[in-house]
Amino acid sequence: MPDVKRTIKIVTEQKVIDKPSGVEGFPLRKWNIQIFLLNEHGEDIPANVYSKATYHLHESFGKRAVQAVTSPPFKIQEEGWGEFDMTIVLTAMEKGGETTLSHDLNFQENRYETKHPVTFKNPKPALLERLRESGPVPGDENGKKRGEESAKKKKRPEKGVDMDQLAENLQRLHEDDLLQVVQMVHDHKSADSYTKNDVDAGEFHVDLYTLPDSLIRMLWDFSAEKVGKH
């Protein structure tokens, strides 16, 4: 699967509230943080490519120093008098990995935004489809979204091919077998197929849903046989 790059926007809001802070010269404030994904037009959309956001606050928050939020916009709200740096760990859906962001909580403005580039490495089909809701992914023709096209390809007329199982089989192959798979893909891919050979990283990426049915059948038969022998 191809790597997909997106941009996350963190929105912070804060205001002074009429409560004693206990620290002279530092008024008590109420603050909140929300997390959004930017689409291809730079507009805010729900960051539903993530299943969880975990906030690691200052240790002075005690039991609330680590807080997990499991639905967009992953809003957290607290009260305090001090500024501090925190980390936010975003967990992608479909076991798509974690991204750790650093965030500076400060009181210079009532509302401020920060943007962070993020990369989804080898996203699984369900995550890839969710990413398409925010814009094209590598391999999409002419920069257009292929949500409907990919949905059709998931319902392949080719009987006996489980695409998720195929992806798992390919990951379990030994190195020599993987080299044969790469050669098969090079020899039988179509003009619409997405492949990327990252020589420096020693990685080969392919979007299975862009491969011809005949090649999918070849990969299915080959990988099933090899995995069965392991």
N-to-C order of helices and strands: EEEEEEEEEHHHHEEH
Q: Note poorly predicted spans.
A: 142-157
Record field, number of beta strands = 11
Overall, the morphology is elongated
Rg, nearest Å = 23 Å
Largest sheet: 5 strands, antiparallel
Straight-line N-to-C gap: 24 Å
Helix content: 10-25%
Number of helices: 5
Which range does the strand content fall in?
25-35%
By secondary-structure content and strand pairing, the structural class works out as alpha+beta
What do the pLDDT scores average to? 86
Task: Write up what this structure looks like.
Helix 4 packs antiparallel against helix 5 (213-229). The chain has five helices and eleven strands, in the order E-E-E-E-E-E-E-E-E-H-H-H-H-E-E-H. It is elongated and about 70 Å long. It has helices at residues 125-132, 147-154, 163-172, 175-188, 213-229; strands at 4-16, 29-38, 44-46, 50-56, 66-69, 76-80, 84-92, 98-105, 111-120, 195-198, 203-206. The chain is of the alpha+beta class.
Quick recap:
25% of the residues lie in helices and 33% in strands.
What labels describe this entry?
alpha+beta, single chain, 4-stranded antiparallel β-sheet, 230 residues, elongated
Which helices and strands occur, and which strands form pairs?
Blueprint: E1 4-16, E2 29-38, E3 44-46, E4 50-56, E5 66-69, E6 76-80, E7 84-92, E8 98-105, E9 111-120, H1 125-132, H2 147-154, H3 163-172, H4 175-188, E10 195-198, E11 203-206, H5 213-229
Antiparallel strand pairs: 1-2, 1-9, 2-3, 2-6, 4-5, 4-7, 7-8, 10-11
